[in-house]
């Protein structure tokens, strides 16, 4: 059984989204903002400025996946500026377009185990109600397996031994909860195999189900709506009684990763006995848990399993850089070979069922992905393609991992990107504090288009993994509980102080910028520490924590108890006062710097009202604010023209409001669905 993780791949997130959402259709004319050419803008400078079309345009090719028999390779590439699925032979010949989408593109797909179909998930208008589509590779025929309006559906599992059967989850019965169906790919018939009751006999909310390797439902997860405690229940088969396997706080982790092939045990990650998560094996009969490995600095990252035996072969940890540990000596020669073959952190993105051919990707600072076809038999590598080959024509900035100490002693793993000293001197520089979204996510070492854009234009860029970021242990994560606008924001402010003290940042030219939670942090920085920043750029960020918590999508609501712990409970009077005090919209009078706010019209996660009310509050007191709404977007950018338009407007905004920086001429992009308000 292959468990399908239905998140847009991290590489695609760089291009398309703050989260994995996609949104709607409203098209209005662009409004041009006056452009003022920099005094020191020259033809020489223009030649070394990386065009935004290179950094933010569609990748040339990305996301290759081997067919189960290894004879074909599917991948994503643009057609008429829209990303679509293509296929080519194993020898990289005979490329052929498979999908002909002209709207939001296809970015989330994989091969069915039958080798004849590709399955992909796509919403209709960016509302995040994804349908599951079955594409016949030979004929090009496409079937919507879940043709139900207003319902979110996704594939959750496949099995090599049941090639024409998949598991699909949908919230058709109740928008808050997902049921599990078995789908016959030959007939398209859906058969319910797990009916989510919403709550169990103890009154706990049912969050979801987990199948074993044969796609039998063997576990389900619940959360107590009062205290946020999570319970995992287990059974041996459909005729067995459910039994409690583990209960733990929302502030801790005990996460099954994979059943053994025979179903007698599970591999899991847990931090119940430690700060950092460790990797374990549990015998389900005896409940005995055996430690396998852990890291001294980071939580467990990814785990690679042998596709035949089901045993773990490798595990990764990521503090400032990725570290891989080999758990099975059989792949040691492969790992040694791949580690030496090319620069950058590498991973295996796809393999054939024989496990003889792998698609290997290298992630570097100067390119998001370089793909190779690796033959394990003769240890040979064939370069397939690079995501953005045009980047090779430019000098990209180096990224330096750094550790910053917060005012109360936390170590903040961070990344610093500096401009080329040959052109911009040794600093101090105008500086971007670039805040990641989530907030239960993190920044990584590697290519990031905004960092490269800003550094190329003369900015230093600092990315701080503030408390509440994931991957650095539960103490660091839980230190962010109910600290939006407080200690989480202090960590960001401490990053600015570090950059100034080390001579990196010019204190008069610091900009705060971010999307999603990073958008909130941008507004909070402008509201609570306005003395630190000369300008602010918020995209898709909530402005009022009470209204934000009250307007989340319905399928987030079962997690309300966890959200209350992490953010605060609007239904509790004390918490509501706390959330009001952390809501930037209530402190608009402090925001005296130029503001740029961006919103997707149909964003289901941070609804448009969050930006509308922030802009209204700012304009009521006369603060300068540029407000741009993208009509065919939601919580991120799916359309290339909107992505390019946004990047250009950000660059121009910075030039107009930060003295002494360079700018590439911005012209509003034809086809962009902007509305300037």
List keywords for this structure.
alpha+beta; 677 residues; disordered N terminus; Rossmann fold
Word description of this protein:
This protein has 677 residues and is α+β, with helices and mostly antiparallel strands. It has a domain at 33-54 and 392-676: Rossmann fold (3-Layer(aba) Sandwich). It has 14 helices and 37 strands. A 9-stranded mixed β-sheet has the order 29-30-32-31-33-34-35-36-37, sandwiched between helices. Strands 1-10-11-12-13 form a 5-stranded antiparallel β-sheet, with no helix packed on it. The longest helix is centred in the C-terminal third of the chain and has 18 residues, at 640-657. The N and C termini lie far apart (50 Å). The relative contact order is 0.12. Mean pLDDT is 92; it is low at 3-43.
| Integer-rounded radius of gyration | 25 Å
**Low-pLDDT stretches:** 3-43
Secondary structure class reads: alpha+beta
How far do the termini sit from each other? 50 Å
The overall pLDDT average reads 92
Q: Would you kindly provide a brief summary of this structure?
A:
The protein is an alpha+beta fold and 677 residues long. It has 14 helices and 37 strands.
Helix and strand topology:
Blueprint: E1 2-3, H1 10-16, H2 43-48, H3 52-56, E2 62-66, E3 72-79, E4 82-89, E5 96-97, E6 109-111, E7 117-122, E8 131-136, E9 142-144, E10 153-158, E11 165-174, E12 177-184, E13 190-194, E14 205-211, E15 217-223, E16 230-234, E17 243-248, E18 254-259, E19 265-270, E20 278-283, E21 289-293, E22 300-305, E23 312-318, E24 322-326, H4 332-341, E25 345-351, E26 357-364, E27 367-375, E28 380-386, E29 399-405, E30 411-417, H5 421-424, E31 429-435, H6 449-456, E32 460-464, H7 474-478, H8 487-501, E33 505-515, H9 517-528, E34 535-539, H10 545-550, H11 560-566, H12 573-581, E35 595-600, H13 608-620, E36 625-630, H14 640-657, E37 674-676
Parallel strand pairs: 31-32, 31-33, 33-34, 34-35, 35-36
Antiparallel strand pairs: 1-10, 2-3, 3-4, 4-5, 6-7, 7-8, 8-9, 10-11, 11-12, 12-13, 14-15, 15-16, 16-17, 18-19, 19-20, 20-21, 22-23, 23-24, 25-26, 26-27, 27-28, 29-30, 30-32, 36-37
């Amino acid at each position: 059984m292959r468990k399908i993780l239905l998140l847009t791949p991290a590489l695609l997130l760089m291009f398309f989204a703050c989260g994995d959402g996609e949104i709607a259709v409203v098209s209005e004319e662009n409004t041009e903002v006056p452009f003022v050419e920099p005094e020191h803008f020259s033809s020489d400078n223009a030649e070394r400025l990386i065009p935004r079309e290179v950094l933010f345009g569609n990748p040339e090719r990305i996301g290759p996946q081997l067919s189960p028999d290894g004879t074909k390779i599917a991948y994503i590439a643009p057609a008429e500026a829209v990303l679509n699925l293509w296929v080519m032979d194993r020898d990289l010949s005979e490329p052929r377009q498979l999908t002909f989408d002209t709207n939001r593109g296809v970015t989330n797909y994989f091969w069915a185990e039958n080798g004849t179909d590709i399955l992909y998930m796509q919403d209709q208008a960016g509302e995040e109600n994804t349908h599951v589509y079955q594409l016949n590779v030979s004929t090009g025929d496409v079937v919507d397996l879940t043709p139900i309006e207003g319902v979110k559906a996704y594939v959750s599992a496949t099995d090599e031994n049941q090639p024409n059967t998949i598991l699909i989850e949908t919230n058709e019965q109740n928008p808050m909860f997902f049921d599990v169906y078995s789908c016959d790919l030959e007939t398209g018939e859906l058969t319910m195999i797990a009916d989510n009751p919403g709550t169990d006999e103890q009154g706990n909310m049912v969050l979801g189900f987990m199948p074993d390797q044969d796609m039998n439902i063997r576990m389900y997860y619940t959360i107590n709506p009062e205290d946020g405690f999570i319970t995992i229940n287990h059974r041996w088969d459909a005729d067995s009684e459910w039994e409690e396997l583990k209960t733990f706080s929302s502030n801790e982790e005990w996460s099954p990763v994979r059943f053994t092939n025979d179903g007698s045990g599970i591999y899991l990650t847990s931090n119940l006995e430690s700060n950092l998560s460790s990797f374990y094996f549990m015998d389900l009969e005896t409940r005995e848990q055996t430690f396998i490995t852990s890291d001294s600095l980071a939580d467990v990252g990814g785990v690679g399993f042998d596709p035949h035996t089901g045993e773990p072969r490798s595990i990764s940890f990521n503090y400032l850089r990725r570290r891989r540990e080999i758990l099975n000596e059989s792949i040691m020669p492969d790992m040694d070979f791949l580690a030496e073959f090319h620069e950058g952190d590498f991973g295996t993105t796809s393999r054939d069922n024989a496990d003889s051919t792998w698609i290997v990707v290298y992630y570097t600072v100067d390119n998001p992905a370089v793909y190779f076809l690796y033959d394990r038999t003769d240890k040979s590598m064939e370069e397939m393609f690079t995501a953005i080959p045009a980047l090779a024509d430019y000098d990209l900035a180096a990224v330096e991992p750094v550790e910053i100490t917060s005012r109360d002693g936390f170590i903040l793993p961070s990344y610093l990107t500096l401009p080329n000293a040959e052109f911009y001197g040794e600093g101090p520089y105008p500086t971007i504090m670039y805040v990641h979204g989530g907030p239960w996510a993190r920044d990584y070492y590697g290519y990031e288009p905004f960092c490269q854009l800003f550094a190329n234009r003369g900015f230093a860029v600092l990315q701080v993994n503030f408390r509440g970021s994931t991957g650095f242990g539960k103490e660091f994560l839980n230190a962010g509980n109910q600290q939006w606008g407080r200690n989480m924001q202090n960590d960001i402010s401490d990053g600015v102080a570090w950059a100034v003290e080390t001579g990196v940042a010019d204190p008069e030219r610091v900009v705060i910028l971010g999307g999603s939670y990073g958008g909130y942090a941008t507004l909070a920085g402008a509201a609570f520490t306005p003395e630190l920043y000369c300008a602010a750029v918020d995209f898709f960020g909530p402005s009022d924590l009470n209204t934000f918590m009250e307007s989340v999508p319905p399928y987030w609501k079962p997690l309300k108890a966890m959200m209350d712990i992490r953010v605060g409970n609007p239904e509790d009077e004390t918490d509501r006062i706390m959330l009001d005090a952390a809501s930037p919209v209530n402190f608009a009078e402090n925001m005296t710097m130029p503001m740029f706010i961006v919103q997707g019209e149909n964003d289901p996660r941070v609804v448009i009202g969050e930006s509308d009310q922030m802009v209204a509050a700012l304009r009521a007191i006369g603060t300068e604010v540029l407000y741009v709404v993208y009509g065919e977007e939601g919580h991120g950018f799916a359309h290339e023209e909107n992505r390019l338009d946004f990047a250009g407007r950000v660059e121009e905004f910075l030039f107009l409001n930060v003295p002494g920086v360079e700018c590439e001429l911005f012209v509003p992009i034809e086809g962009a669905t902007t509305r300037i308000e």
